[in-house]
């Protein structure tokens, strides 16, 4: 469900936040700032990402991002992402939340739903069922969806690729990236959890100024829950 920032209410947040959106939208840039900001306040924060946060996931990430075009069937791709995600939830996200850490994930099931569900035109119901099994009810307190014109996203990733190389998805057509953007928005409208769609065209500083008050509210509500729960078991 899409929410406006003034309407975002954190009632007993579990401490799980997700940043998602297209390639080059600025997820990783924002993640670094968020983590630095929260750690400066001595808050326990775990920064993680998909795919590839577990040992198994690193192998899957390599397979997923480095496969030649048309060598992996679309539904196979969904299963591989789901295997990575399920292991990520079971071995990293849920244990960290149980230790009462704040968890921020750079991409989550939204990426698979948008990439494979909308772009590859698979059965949305099937993709959604596979995702539900993979996340096992582990939904974030808020998804921050960085929304960006695909041309700008590709321009940014091209600049970055000159130093770091690119992955298979960045080589897809511009139409693919336009469908992807629509997929993310459609998903934001229909999912149960709150989604804040942020205009990622802005400068990193301007995005940060917009995001900071929400993060402060999230972090205050999280700390309140921790105080009320007493010490971690
Ligand atoms: N708001 C912004 N305006 C302009 N450039 C930006 C902005 N945010 C990030 N960038 C630059 O764009 C490039 C992509 O940013 P970043 O790596 O954060 O995106 P990403 O969403 O994590 O991409 P990917 O999905 O490929 O991992 C980087 O070189 C980064 O410095
Ligand atoms: Mg990134």
Summarize the structure.
With 233 residues, the chain is α/β, with parallel strands linked by helices. It has helices spanning 27-40, 55-66, 74-98, 109-119, 124-135, 150-164, 174-190, 204-229, and strands spanning 16-21, 45-49, 102-106, 142-147, 195-199.
Task: Characterise this structure.
The chain is built from eight helices and five strands, in the order βαβααβααβααβα. The model has no long low-confidence stretch (mean pLDDT 92). It has a five-stranded parallel beta sheet, sandwiched between helices. The chain is globular. The protein is of the alpha/beta class. It has a single domain (5-226), classed as 3-Layer(aba) Sandwich (Rossmann fold), CATH 3.40.50.300. 57% of the residues lie in helices and 12% in strands.
List keywords for this structure.
233 residues; binds magnesium ion; five-stranded parallel β-sheet; Rossmann fold; 8 helices; alpha/beta; single chain; binds adenosine-5'-triphosphate
Structural class: alpha/beta
What overall form do the CA principal axes indicate?
globular
Number of helices: 8
The gyration radius over C-alpha positions equals 17 Å
Q: What is the number of beta strands?
A: 5
In the CATH hierarchy, the third-tier topology is known as: Rossmann fold
Per-chain topology:
Layout: E1 16-21, H1 27-40, E2 45-49, H2 55-66, H3 74-98, E3 102-106, H4 109-119, H5 124-135, E4 142-147, H6 150-164, H7 174-190, E5 195-199, H8 204-229
Parallel strand pairs: 1-3, 1-4, 2-3, 4-5
Helix pairs in contact: 1-8, 2-3, 3-5, 4-5, 4-7
């Amino acid at each position: 469900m899409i929410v406006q920032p003034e309407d975002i209410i954190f009632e007993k947040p579990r401490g799980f936040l997700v940043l998602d959106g297209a390639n080059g939208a600025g997820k990783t840039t924002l993640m670094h700032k968020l983590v630095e900001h929260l750690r400066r306040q001595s808050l326990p924060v775990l920064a993680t990402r998909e795919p590839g946060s577990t040992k198994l996931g690193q192998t899957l990430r390599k397979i997923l991002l480095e496969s030649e075009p048309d060598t992996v069937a679309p539904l196979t791709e969904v299963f591989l992402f789901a295997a990575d995600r399920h292991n990520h939830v079971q071995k990293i996200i849920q244990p960290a939340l149980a230790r009462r850490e704040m968890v921020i994930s750079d991409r989550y099931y939204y990426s698979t739903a948008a990439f494979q569900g909308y772009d590859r035109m698979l059965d949305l119901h099937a993709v959604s069922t596979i995702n539900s099994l993979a996340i096992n009810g582990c939904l974030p307190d808020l998804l921050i969806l960085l929304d960006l014109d695909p041309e700008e996203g590709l321009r940014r990733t091209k600049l970055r690729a000159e130093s770091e190389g690119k992955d298979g998805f960045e080589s897809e057509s511009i139409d693919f990236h336009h469908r992807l953007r629509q997929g993310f928005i459609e998903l934001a409208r229909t999912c149960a959890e709150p989604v804040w769609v942020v205009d990622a065209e802005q400068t990193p500083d301007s995005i940060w100024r917009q995001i900071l008050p929400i993060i402060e509210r999230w972090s205050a509500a999280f700390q309140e829950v921790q105080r009320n729960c007493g010490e971690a078991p």
